[in-house]
Write a structure and sequence with these properties.
The complex is a heterodimer of chains A (about 575) and B (about 70). Chain A is of the alpha+beta class and about 575 residues long. Helices cover about 35% and strands about 15% of the residues of chain A. Chain A has a domain at about 255-380: Alpha-Beta Complex (Flavocytochrome C3, Chain A, domain 1). Chain A is built from 15 helices and 21 strands. In chain A, strands 7-3-2-11-19 form a five-stranded parallel sheet, covered by helices on one side. In chain A, a hairpin with a 4-residue loop joins β9 (about 175-185) and β10 (about 190-195). Chain B contains two helices and five strands. In chain B, a hairpin with a 4-residue loop joins β2 (about 25) and β3. The longest helix of chain B is centred in the first third of the chain and has 5 residues, at about 15-20. The N and C termini of chain B lie far apart (about 35 Å). Classes of the chains: A alpha+beta (about 575), B alpha+beta (about 70). The interface of A and B includes residues 163 and 368 of A.
């Protein structure tokens, strides 16, 4: 295949057009500078909110001030509920909490509806409990968030280039000067000249393990095109990554056979959904709407509500225990729900990503939520919100490479930052990136040799007449990840896995005769690189903590390891480790 | 076959092919063709956005939610 080369000159390049990327581009465009989004799919239906989102957490001053619940309370709750007792970037979580409400107001301005005439909540919002000890998640009409953000970006003059897989970041004198990518449909290489890059490709990594259902491309929390490209680009350019060792949980409980986001009880299917075991015992109880009539009149002391939060989080472990100990099948049902509550759950389902289609299936097949039970089972392993793996950035979302920013799930250190993380850090990174460009003199010009090296990599794959199908190499990778990592990691297994990944990388001869398959080959390359970093990091952290479970170091070691583990490429192509102590406010 | 296009309804607008997150479709002269059905993420974007409801995404047998029907009495 002969590649044509297209050069794109811009000021702020946003890699990835998901929630974070669109917000970054929209904010950066206010500066009047040129802003470009490079997106692997089509921004209208890409990323983790491709087919919608029905809930996002926020600090909501008009509600939370009346509850006497402060930002500091949100942070403590978040630490307790999803961040393993505070193993997180407290400063970034503060940024997210402080600006989340403003970003929701922006979404409203961009055409998303958050207000409901029948709601008893001040502001007519719909707010439900999710991660925190008080209701803090907006439920809203988010099915078309991506088309709406796309329209807003276009309205502001953002250039959107769809169907390009980004592969390389370029630096000159240690600062960002551009990037390269390859079209997924045409034989074309894009070379971007930009003084600032906001990395906002999905921070989640899919397809690292065999799918539990035996079908490779339907995974739970992220589009299957999320293959860690952003992380690997950043790492190769010299940026530091953290949390790579916290590799996806061994599958959480979800709806059997059809993986999607949102589950029982504290998510899309509330308030009425609950989980029962084979004998009908309730093992995860339903939730209830908050008593909004009493807002501000009765405030539960923070300590008390935090105890309840801790108890509810424990239920997730209980469900896993039931799964293991033979009280299966486990089911979700809505038997305790009123008609109104079930209607509410169906409404939020119709807006949550990948649940509109599930709801349609249920309706088409005569599922009656008042009477029927829906079987639950383990979903595939996935490197998602619990891992919080990604680029190490400062409080302004800038990495160690001047001009290289990260946003959303690409940032390491805040478990389940999810949508609010994307909206807030996307906005912030876009703002700071634009300010930086305005201050930076001179032109951005990637070195010709670096560009040629990238093109040569593409040609290696497309010029090969015979070789390995990308999917077969992917299966080989998944076998290695499944064999050598899991619930009982040891140094010997991780070392052997690392060796086998190296062998796979060296020996595989992927070939493609069209741009789409070239893209898939490059994705597999990213996945192998991710696998290597995951195993390397897991070996280095000599303790068990959060998602990392080691048989050879079974206990938590706060004295030595209450810190992030940084991975950075050194000059010889090896890895430089660093420990970054966690800073509590 | 999991991605079914009703040719009587389809108007060849190409929206499904344009939007698919995994680029599963190839736009033919008249109709889209789900040439890469094995890479479908089953997100339903094509169904959601087809202006004439010409697409049905059918869950293969191993992907179907498992329902225990309730006691009708």
């Amino acid at each position: 295949m002969e590649f044509e080369k297209e050069t794109v000159q811009t000021d702020v390049l946003v890699v990835g057009g998901g929630l974070a990327g669109c917000m970054a581009a929209i904010k950066a465009s206010e500066s009047g500078l040129r802003v470009t989004i490079a997106e692997k799919a089509n921004t209208k239906r890409s990323g983790s909110t491709a087919t919608g989102i029905d809930h996002l957490w926020a600090y909501i001053p008009p509600i939370h001030e009346k509850m006497d619940w402060k930002i500091e309370d949100l942070m403590e709750d978040h630490a307790l509920s999803v961040a393993y007792g505070g193993f997180m970037r407290w400063d970034l979580l503060r940024l997210m909490a402080e600006t989340s409400y403003d970003r929701v107001m922006d979404l409203e301005r961009f055409g998303l509806n958050f207000r409901y005439d029948d709601s008893p909540v001040p502001g007519k919002f719909r707010i439900v409990p999710q991660f925190h000890s008080v209701p803090s998640s907006f439920n809203f009409d988010g099915r078309d968030i991506k088309p709406k953000l796309t329209a807003e970006a276009k309205r502001r003059g953002v250039q959107i280039i769809n169907r390009v897989m980004m592969t390389d970041l370029f630096t000159r004198d240690g600062s960002i000067c551009g990037a390269a990518g390859v079209s997924t449909r045409e034989p074309r290489v894009y070379v971007f000249e930009a003084k600032a890059v906001v990395l906002a490709a999905s921070g989640r990594i899919s397809r690292l393990n065999r799918s539990v259902m035996g079908y490779n491309f339907n995974r739970r929390l992220s589009p299957t095109g999320s293959t860690g490209d952003g992380k690997i680009m950043a790492f190769n350019a010299g940026a530091e990554l953290i949390n790579m060792e916290f590799f996806g949980p061994s599958g959480t409980l979800g709806i059997k056979n059809y993986p999607m986001a949102g589950g029982a009880p504290r998510s899309t299917l509330q308030p009425a959904a609950r989980v029962v075991d084979a004998k009908g015992n309730v093992i995860v109880p339903r939730t209830y709407f908050y008593d909004w009539q009493n807002l501000g009149k009765i405030n539960v002391p923070a300590e008390e509500s935090r105890k309840q939060l801790a108890a509810e989080r424990k239920l997730r472990v209980v469900a896993a225990k039931h799964y293991r100990e033979g009280s299966r099948p486990l089911y979700m049902d809505f038997k305790e729900g009123t008609d109104e509550e079930i209607k509410y759950a169906e409404w939020s389902m119709s807006h949550e990503g990948k649940m509109w289609i599930l709801l349609k299936y249920w309706k088409d097949h005569g599922v009656d939520l008042k009477k029927d039970k829906i079987e639950m089972d383990k979903t595939s392993r996935e490197n998602a919100g619990s891992s919080a793996a990604g680029v190490w950035v400062d409080k302004d979302c800038e990495s160690g490479i001047p001009g290289l920013f990260a946003a959303g799930d690409e940032i390491g250190g805040v478990p389940w930052s999810a949508a609010p993380g994307a909206l807030t850090t996307g906005w912030h990174a876009g703002m700071i990136a634009a300010e930086k460009v305005a201050r930076t003199k001179g032109d951005a010009e990637p070195e010709g040799a670096a560009v040629e090296e990238a093109v040569a990599r593409f040609r290696n794959i497309t010029n090969r007449k015979e070789g390995d199908r990308w999917l077969d190499v992917e299966y080989a990778l998944q076998e290695i990840m499944d064999t050598y990592t899991g619930e009982k990691n040891t140094d010997e297994m991780l070392a052997r896995g690392l060796q086998r990944l190296g062998d796979l990388e060296a020996s595989s001869r992927m070939c493609a005769d069209n741009p789409h398959d070239l893209m898939r080959c490059l994705e597999v390359g990213s996945l192998i690189s991710c696998g290597k970093l995951i195993m390397t990091a897991a070996r280095q952290r000599k303790e068990s903590r959060a998602l990392l479970k080691r048989s050879d170091y079974p206990d938590k070691d706060d004295e030595n390891w209450f810190a992030f583990l940084g991975l950075k490429r050194d000059r010889d192509g090896g890895i430089q480790f660093s420990k970054k102590p966690i800073k509590r406010p | 076959m999991s991605i079914l296009i009703d040719h009587d309804l389809c108007n060849g607008c190409g929206i499904c092919a344009d939007l698919c997150p995994e680029d599963v479709f190839l736009m033919g002269e008249a109709y889209p063709d789900a040439v890469r059905e094995s890479e479908c993420w089953y997100c339903g974007a094509c169904m959601m956005d087809c202006p004439v409801d010409a697409i049905e995404v059918v869950f293969p047998p191993y992907m179907r939610p498992v329902i225990l029907k309730g006691d009708p009495t």
